[in-house]
Structure formats: structure tokens, C-alpha cells
Amino acid sequence: MEREKLFDAFSGLKNQLKVIRDLRVRVNVSFENHVKHSFNDALVLDFDDVAARDAYLIDPRHQAVGAQLVSAADGGLKGIVVFDMEL
């Protein structure tokens, strides 16, 4: 799947899953190549609480798009980094 179509599918989850407070797709534009670590894109999601995040994680729509992301990533799952942070 083309990168833009994949990101569109991921972005579409915001309208499908009410547990997502905000969802952003961002491109790494850093000029500091020595700290880039070869990650080109960021998918940033905000949830109101842990329960909302947990509901998102088990939703079949997220799992389907997530599987497409893993399939498209360089190195599969090794090409993806996930951070869960409390704000």
C-alpha cells in the first residue's frame, strides 16, 4: 500500500474510534542525521486515559491498520517504535 494511503487509513481511525482524542501523522524533517535513527515518520495519538488507550489497542480496526503499518515498515515490527507516555 502506498505510504499516503496507509497514513490516510491510519488517520481515518480518529473518526471511527471515539476513544482517540487526537491523531497526527508527522514527517521527520530533522537535519541532525546523526540522531535520526532512520525513522522517517511519526504517528502520534492522544487518549483521555489508559482505558481509552486499551480500548483502542484491542479494536479490530486498529489491529487491521496496525498490521498494514508493520507490513510496510522497513524491517517489519523492528521498524516501528511505540512510546506510551502520560501527559
Radius of gyration (CA) equals: 13 Å
What global shape is seen?
A: globular
How many helices? The count is: 3
Largest sheet: 2 strands, antiparallel
Please give the alpha-carbon distance between the first and last residues.
Answer: 33 Å
Mean pLDDT: 88
State the strand order across the main sheet: 1-2
Helical amount: 40-55%
Quick structural overview:
This protein is an alpha+beta fold and 87 residues long. Helix content is 41%, strand content 17%.
Description:
Helices cover 41% and strands 17% of the residues. The protein has 87 residues and is of the alpha+beta class. A two-stranded antiparallel ribbon has the order 1-2. Helix 1 (3-16) runs antiparallel to helix 3. It is globular and about 35 Å long.
